[in-house]
Automatic annotation (TrEMBL):
InterPro entries: BACK, BTB-kelch_protein, BTB/POZ_dom, Kelch-typ_b-propeller, Kelch_1, SKP1/BTB/POZ_sf. It comes from Cyprinus carpio. The lineage of its organism: Eukaryota, Metazoa, Chordata, Craniata, Vertebrata. Residues 22-89 form the BTB domain. This is Kelch-like protein 10. The keyword Coiled coil applies.
């Protein structure tokens, strides 16, 4: 009946409200509803079967719907006649039960979409448990499970329903690679919290739950003090083989401990969980030509994974941005053409699509995201360095010119922090720049801020914590190892620890609370190495290197992908590598 004009349904609904030509009375909780059989049959296979067995030419028949509230029955009838209904947090669960009972698939879907849009740490477990009895809600149940896994630490803080999980439900959650925790210690604490809710009946379950905790990923101090010496663990003999193998994984394989080594168990206890976010290194200049290579960095496994999509054309000296779960590649150069084109990558479907082009061709472009807009700033159009800027609105698929900068600059770098866009360094065509500017979108105005301590072209700029970081680059004579930070509150730049390796035209991003510098040109050649900086210790650390040497790449971070496993290191491969490392 979906092909019938809405006007016809409006006529039927008006006739229902006036009691005209009705041939059925539905009674729910002592309230009677006059309806037309044909309308209910068109909406619901349940009613079609019910009425076909008792279809008569008697003017009106009565049907009692037991256990149904007047309000919900009214909404069901309204949906049958109009195809829409007002769903609220107060009525959605009861309405979903009724829609499922009457096999009204459209209304079931509407209720599920409503609940999905309301998923939060407080209700995700409840929604997941509620939908277990409804085959028609499998998609919502999957979304709720994924939400629990991706927001596990937040769920632990606020969800009372976590404590009401069954043993099997808790096992399923903490066994998943997709479980998102910053430290495995959180999982062990969650197990203890769950047991403590009903200690007499649950303390015996520690032996079932402990194998799901990846103790080999814990710090050795925490493991010894909080796991090995935990009273529940010590009193349960079944836990001892787990503890022995975890100790062998954490310390040395040949340490003198009683009990056999189980490589399978050690793999289970040391298997990295999937990352909640991945860092993408896209394109760049490699082996004397532009590249279309995309590598994904899995921080949990410290591995790079090739995820290149061959239908993307090579580009270098471009910018990337993540907005609304899409990756945008902006501008760039392929050794022949200077691009004004912009491509959008859907990492779920693994497809590229062209979006609206920029007003100007821009390679050596600086890109930032602020308040749902992508900013493309400065660059080189093949003729000269640019001071213009423009921003992209994904809702309208349009670029709009903004105010121009105070200085022309290409090969700069931009970021956003606390409602402002910042751009630092760059090249005017004759000199490398100290200068930096901030853009206020409310006033559409660029303002020069304090200059950096070093000239930096090919610099990496990123917001990290409450500061703007300017890292590496080229000062006109040498590639730089140095880095500095800008505090918007004081308008002051301060030096921080230098990188291990000099680099310009590299990728820069923040993932897992660490700043990564990836690839680049070191003054002699392109490089594949990567290093990361921890603001807490003011130290740089080596990270695993990419598969290819490249500069002029661009990096971005995307989180919450439902298919994150496609972009992460294969967990079995990681284990094999760990085993060989230990031999």
């Amino acid at each position: 009946m979906e092909n019938i004009s809405p006007t016809v349904f409006n006529v039927f609904d008006e006739a229902r409200l006036l009691g005209e030509h009705t041939d059925l009375i539905i009674r729910a909780n002592d309230r009677e509803f006059q309806v037309h059989k044909i309308i209910l049959c068109g909406c619901s296979p349940y009613f079609r079967v019910l009425f076909s067995a008792n279809w008569t030419r008697i003017p009106e028949q009565f049907y009692d719907i037991t256990g149904m509230s007047q309000n919900i029955m009214s909404l069901i009838i309204q949906y049958a006649y109009t195809g829409s209904v007002f769903i609220t947090e107060e009525n959605v669960l009861e309405l979903l039960v009724a829609a499922d009972q009457f096999l009204i698939s459209g209304l079931v879907d509407a209720c599920c979409q409503f609940l999905e849009s309301r998923l939060c740490p407080e209700n995700c477990i409840g929604i997941c448990m509620f939908t277990e009895d409804f085959h028609s809600c499998s998609k919502l149940r999957h979304k709720a499970k994924l939400y629990i896994l991706q927001h596990f630490e937040e769920v632990l803080q606020v969800s009372e329903e976590f404590l009401e999980l069954s043993l099997e439900q808790l096992e399923e959650i903490i066994d998943k690679d997709e479980l998102n925790v910053k430290q495995e210690e959180v999982v062990f604490e969650a197990v203890l919290h769950w047991i403590d809710y009903a200690p007499e009946s649950r303390r015996k379950h520690i032996a079932m739950l402990l194998p799901k905790v990846r103790m080999g990923l814990m710090t050795s101090d925490y493991f010894i003090n909080n796991v090995k010496n935990n009273a529940l663990v010590m009193e349960n003999e079944a836990c001892m083989p787990l503890i022995i193998n975890a100790m062998k994984a954490l310390f040395e394989f040949d340490m003198d401990l009683p009990g056999p080594i189980s490589l399978e168990l050690i793999h289970q206890l040391t298997r990295p969980r999937l990352p909640s976010a991945i860092l993408l290194a896209i394109g760049g200049w490699s082996n004397g030509s532009p590249s279309n290579v995309i590598e994904a960095y899995d921080a949990n496994a410290d591995r790079w994974v090739s995820v290149t999509l061959e239908d993307e054309r090579p580009r270098a000296y471009h910018g990337t941005a993540v907005l609304d779960e899409f990756v945008y590649c902006v501008g760039g150069y392929d050794s022949v053409e200077y691009f004004n084109s912009v491509r959008k990558l859907n990492l779920i479907t693994q497809t590229w699509n062209e979006v609206a082009p920029m007003y100007e061709r821009r390679c050596y472009v600086s890109v930032a995201v602020l308040d749902g807009f992508i900013y493309a700033i400065g660059g080189f159009d093949g003729h000269g360095r640019l001071k213009s800027a423009e921003r992209y609105d994904p809702d309208t698929n349009q670029w709009t010119l903004t105010a121009s900068m105070n200085e022309r600059r290409s090969d700069a770098s931009a970021t956003s922090l606390q409602g402002w866009v910042y751009i630092c360094g760059g090249f005017t065509g004759t000199e490398c720049l100290f200068s930096a500017e901030s853009f206020n979108p409310q006033t559409n105005q660029w303002t020069l801020i304090a200059p950096m301590r070093s000239r930096r072209s090919g610099v990496g700029v990123i917001a990290y914590g409450e500061l703007v970081y300017a890292v590496g680059g080229f000062d006109g004579a040498t590639r730089l190892r140095s880095a500095e930070t800008y505090n918007p509150l004081t308008n002051i730049w301060c030096d921080i620890a230098s990188m291990y390796n000099p680099r310009s035209n590299f990728g820069i991003e923040v993932i897992d609370d660490q700043l990564f510098a990836v690839g680049g040109f070191n003054g002699v050649s392109t490089t594949s190495d990567a290093e990361c900086y921890d603001e807490k210790t003011n130290e740089w650390f080596d990270a695993n290197e990419m598969a290819i040497f490249r500069s002029a790449l661009s990096c971005c971070v995307i989180s919450g992908l439902p298919n994150m496993a496609q972009y992460a290191a294969q967990r079995d491969t990681v284990q094999i590598q760990d085993e060989s490392d230990s031999e």
